Amino acid sequence: MRLSRLLRLQSVFYNQSEKRLASAIQHMVGSKPFNLSLYKLALKHTSIAEETINGLKISNERLEYLGDAILGAVVAEFLFKKFPFRDEGFLTETRSRMVNREALNQIAIKIGLSKIIEKEFKGKNLSAHKSIYGDTLEAVVGAVYLDRGYDFCKKFILKRIIVHFDVDGIITTTSNFKSKIIEWSQKENKEVDFKTLSVTGNQRFKEFHVHLLVGGEVVAEGKGPTKKKAEQDASKNACEILNLDF
Amino acid sequence: MRLSRLLRLQSVFYNQSEKRLASAIQHMVGSKPFNLSLYKLALKHTSIAEETINGLKISNERLEYLGDAILGAVVAEFLFKKFPFRDEGFLTETRSRMVNREALNQIAIKIGLSKIIEKEFKGKNLSAHKSIYGDTLEAVVGAVYLDRGYDFCKKFILKRIIVHFDVDGIITTTSNFKSKIIEWSQKENKEVDFKTLSVTGNQRFKEFHVHLLVGGEVVAEGKGPTKKKAEQDASKNACEILNLDF
């Protein structure tokens, strides 16, 4: 902890803009940053990154890569514990819906990160970089992890990021591909049917293979260890093929 | 830590096979398991999992999902720190080569996990499940994480798993798509050329778009923030298109 105390002492030497940044980070993360330079780097989008003499561009992309992995691990555990009776297919799907770019963009706005980013860009046009908020949020997660360690970072993610997810909303759409397809078919006045093609494997390890038919024509196929899961899988594929939004 | 001490006391009541398993886990992980049931679950491949009365199948797949995420985070940080001057594209590519199924299968054999799995299968045929070793390794990582927390699990991954990776070998193939292509062209007596099609963006944020030509014909294209990276990207795509193995 000695190094971190030393780093904290640095705050005495902050200039005005560093003081403002440190206070904004404290507000967002929940605690004063130990090493402010990590957060400065996290805010350095590649479009405003300067090139060093040897042609290296110092941007937040490496921190984004790290933050993405840490965020993925924390969200994985969060879902693992929240849904003790759901299978890994459901967990994987829900996780990828939670950490997608658009969802992270929204959360960056909610926790005030967007305001900090806009200051860094000093009035430059941000609209060319659609995913800048979400990318930077991941980089900030990486910075928090390096600055404060896993346990602190996990708390930050749980209390300040995940809390903004509409997990129930995400789950409803994750689990209901089949009902989505049926709802669509009723609206479009089409007939949807499932046909089991084959059941392979032994008593313990079965695999069902089904077709999803719309008006008698095969639209998608699906596989799974139970008939229900295979139909869900086929419905999910059909939703993608038919471009059904959620 | 009280719960963990209580769980440790359980070991007094282990039966013979549990004693053997606990000792094998200790040997592999580097410390006695607190909660042996987590490791038992980690070894429960879906093909030997039993169904409960309400149709739920208790297998290691959920733990595998969790372990995959934790392993991903630890490997991400390992590479982040090992290569302070490489960009996120290189880090992402190297990571995915490290945690792929085949690499994990090999490591499961090296650390003796395969022997434990074979005991669990009690002579049943394992050959139908190609990736069982790697899958189970991920599940074991998930079990170690839940049993002992992030810091312990990170040490386990660094000292007992990553140590077996031929990181340098992986990197050579990751970084050298361009030299691979050139080497191939010399062997095949063909002429390889790169052509820059366009450079878009402003001074700070450029994107190069290049074509890779073999004997005058376009084989692949690539993009990147520098000419070198765009050529590397095109070479990588060409390696895939031309089925050049590493």
From TrEMBL, chains A, B:
Q: State the compartments where it is located.
A: Cytoplasm
Which residues carry out catalysis?
A: 68, 138
Question: Where in the numbering of this chain does the DRBM domain appear?
Answer: 176-244
Chief location bin: cytoplasm
Q: Which residues form the RNase III domain?
A: 14-149
The protein's matches in InterPro entries, at most eight in alphabetical order, are given as:
dsRBD_dom, RNase_III, RNase_III_dom, RNase_III_sf
What protein name does the entry list?
A: Ribonuclease 3
> What species was this sequence derived from?
Cecembia calidifontis
